[in-house]
Design a protein that fits this description.
It contains 7 helices and 17 strands. The chain is an alpha+beta fold and 330 residues long. It has a 5-stranded antiparallel sheet, with helices on both faces.
């Protein structure tokens, strides 16, 4: 993966809607979208954030950009904690509105988005929209979100993935603290990972430890999934949380104490069975770890970005950078 970024805005008023539009345009520019496609992304962000404001009473919009080879996609997550959508099919019908508007926004969203997914219930609504395509080879899908400490522009958390049809290797890294120096440590770790991504997770962490000596340091977790061998291998240093969820069973993966670039006692790899109904969640300490996916009816069947969005919406700590990566079968 060549590039992955995300940004967010808290939707509280009409000014927030305008900010979501500007954020979407900037994402489209970073991905070199043409004027027509950039306009579509901006319109989708506008309509999605307006719906969060009107129907959800406010919430959050996250805009993500991904470039992988010649594939690019802009992904929008619009999340609220409102009453939910009673009838999804009706809500996307032109002319239908529960808020006294003309009822054209949701229909336009459906026609314009390359991909659309809605997860709604009593805990609120998550709307995921994509413009473009970024389909990885092989049987796995992945989505990652990394958001900066509130008020910061640079994020000290980051993620990346290296993939072949047979294997996927995922890095999640959290630079110590937040701001510019944390972001520099994270980018150094991502660069070192990309140079050694073909190696096993434990061995890669050793190289990251050496690469980060010139930085303030970071914590990180690396997972390698081989669906053809029904196997997941994990190694972590520091407080990166990771778990494999299959049905109602969640099994935590262990990271050893330490800080890459500063002090690392040991690296140990752990293996776990991986099946077509397995789901991997990795996150930094910007999220609380008391989540339980089984408490969300039907969530595990959704796109990885929707799953990650639900965890960010409901379990994010507001005093740090926050990141989450979700992997599941395609």
């Amino acid at each position: 993966m060549e590039i992955a970024f995300s940004d967010s805005v808290a939707v509280k008023d009409a000014t927030s809607v305008s900010e979501a539009r500007r954020m979407a345009l900037l994402a489209a520019q970073r991905l070199d979208f043409d004027e027509e496609r950039a306009g579509e992304v901006a319109l989708l962000a506008t309509e999605a954030s307006r719906n969060v404001l009107i129907h959800g009473g406010g919430g959050q919009v996250i805009v993500m950009g991904i470039r992988d080879g010649d594939q690019t996609v802009t992904r929008i997550l619009a999340m609220d904690k409102g009453p939910g959508i009673a009838n999804i099919a009706q809500a996307f019908t032109d002319g239908y509105s529960t808020a006294g508007t003309m009822g054209g926004g949701m229909g336009a969203i459906k026609r314009m988005a390359t991909t659309l997914e809605v997860f709604t219930g009593r805990s609120g609504t998550i709307l995921m929209l994509e413009v473009g395509h970024a389909t990885l080879p092989g049987p796995l899908r992945i989505a990652g979100i990394a958001l900066p400490y509130p008020g910061e522009r640079l994020c000290g958390d980051g993620w990346t993935v290296h993939h072949t049809p047979e294997r996927m290797s995922i890095l999640l890294v959290d630079g110590l603290g937040h701001g510019r120096e944390a972001a520099e440590a994270t980018q150094e770790a991502i660069a070192a990972f990309r140079a050694r991504a073909h190696l096993p997770p434990g061995e890669i962490l050793g190289y990251l430890h050496d690469a980060l000596r010139k930085t303030r340091g970071a914590v990180a977790g690396i997972a390698e999934i081989r669906p053809d061998k029904s196997l997941l291998t994990y190694a972590g240093v520091g407080n990166i949380a990771a778990a494999v969820v299959a049905g109602d069973i969640s099994r935590s993966l262990i990271s050893h104490n330490g800080t890459l670039g500063m002090a690392m006692s040991r690296v140990q790899e752990f293996t776990m069975p991986w099946s077509s109904n397995s789901l991997l969640v990795m996150h930094s300490d910007g999220l609380q770890s008391r989540w339980d996916l089984s408490s969300y009816a039907g969530l595990t069947a959704r796109h990885p970005a929707v799953i990650g969005g639900a965890l960010l919406r409901d379990f994010r700590r507001q005093r740090d950078d926050a990141s989450v990566v979700v992997v599941k079968a395609a």
